[in-house]
Amino acid sequence: MSNAHAAHADRRTILFILCLAVLIAQVDTSVVNLAVHAIGVGLHAPLPALQWVLDGYNLSYAALLMTGGTLADLLGRRRVLQVGAAVFVLGSLLAGLAPNIAALIAGRVLAGIGAALLLPASLALIRVIWADPHERAHAIGVWAGANGAALAIGPTLGGWLIQTAGWRSVFLLIVPIGLAVLLWAPRAIPESRDAQGRRVDLPGQLFGGLALAALAVAAIVQRLLWPAVVVALLAALLFVRVERRAGAGAMIPLPLLRNARLAAVNGVAAAMTFGMYGVLFLLPLNWLRANVLDATGAGLALLPMSLAFVALSHRSGPWSKRFGTRRLMAGGMALIGAGIAVLACSHAGQRLWLAEAGLLLTGVGMALNTGPVLASAVAAVEPARAGTASAMVNTARMIGATLGVGVLGSVFAAGSNVGAGFAAAMALGAAVVFAGVLLAMSADA
């Protein structure tokens, strides 16, 4: 085998491992969305506790992604990838063996910490190993396609597991995949780091995490809405202050905060997941509560979205080159918004044909949008900041997810009936996604 062929084969192996890292984070999310009803019944948990099962993961994930990106650049991207896999496995074991809802939420928080180390390290490795922009766009498209594979594998396999082995099995499913990443990575992936005098920004981490946690509390715990908003604003102000003082050692250096292209891309990512995660939380929950579908049927009913994503996401790289990244992002967001608007008319998912049409539109939109968003984020900065930029865009995604589950879940709960609450939640989700279309159009091509 020639050196060129060997290098190509090695990179295929590396990309496969990095896709496994994405897979464990996304399979976990998609499976748990389907399992929340069974968890609520099994552990006697009310709707707000079920929101925390999802948002405990989303929040720790979002709050620590920036530090995860910094650690990847500072300590070594492969090493941080391995640590993330180990922490994720521990969190999944705790969740799968949890005796009560508090322990389950704790396990979810721990898994989120693992994901915060895994994801930026994996995307940064792509940015460093694939130097050619066109080859990198293809690699990121494949990497993003692992999200779609997770959306297909998670609900279908998860629904069957919930029916046959109980909800605990969906957490234990993640363990062998995480162990594969942990053990395989040092044998196949070259180490890379770019410290450049950087350090972990503990004050920035503290105030940034506090701001995000307060926003999640405001979204879910209605009686604490205004106190939590005040705390979030104060923490955000203190975050900006300490970041300005930290200079080059800041968790988010000021040049990145001033990067208009990166800011627009992050806004698009947050708007997308705000709507999408709200859908994935509320739609299966309503199907199962109303006995429209059982767990296996609900998993199968989510397939139009995930299969559309899998079928089309790998094309995002070539389409970006042909049509332009900005157009592809805007078109994808418009389709996602249209799909969620269709779901708003589905009577809480009980009009199945309408729900399936909405899911299909959403999946096509996600396929068009996800790869270009990720590629634009890492392309907006120099290679030395690849870990930080990838962490920023994934933080934006998880902030959107956290607020989507919290806000849309609360809007749903406040409805006069199930149909009205669901329609109001989906209408708000669609409106936020459509606002993301304008942000996508404002991003530089």
What report would you give on this structure?
This protein is mostly helical and 445 residues long. It folds into two domains: 3-200 and 251-442, MFS general substrate transporter like domains (Growth Hormone, Chain: A), CATH 1.20.1250; 201-250. It is 84% helix and 0% strand. The protein is built from 18 helices and no strands. It has helices at residues 3-43, 47-75, 77-96, 101-129, 133-165, 168-172, 174-188, 202-220, 225-246, 254-257, 260-289, 295-301, 303-313, 316-323, 325-344, 352-379, 386-413, 418-442. Helix 1 crosses helix 11. The longest helix is centred in the first third of the chain and has 41 residues, at 3-43. The chain is globular, with a radius of gyration of 20 Å. The protein starts with a helix and ends with a helix. It holds the Pfam family MFS_1. It is found in: Membrane. Its main location: membrane. This is MFS transporter. Residues 14-445 form the Major facilitator superfamily (MFS) profile domain.
